[in-house]
TrEMBL record:
Species for this entry: Pisum sativum
Annotated protein name in UniProt: ATP-dependent DNA helicase
Amino acid sequence: MLLKDLNELLNLHGKKIEDYDLPSLPPNRVDEDVIPSVIQEELAVDIPNKDIQFVAKLNNGQMVAFKIIMNVIGQKHSGIFFVDGPGGTGE
């Protein structure tokens, strides 16, 4: 897993693990139980209570969008969402 994570980090900078004198990656295998490191990092972020309390202050349109997105997350589906708003509107 360390080599895989290192390779992901190198890929972000246009490099590959093969570019260095390191052990090669083990054969590719799909492990659906493993959470990608990027998602693990995001899950580890502490959400302040004041941010959670802002949910109650959403207007109707914002609440609909929030519930749709949270429903997708709760059902462990994937999705792409585009939030558009003028600068300074708190989008």
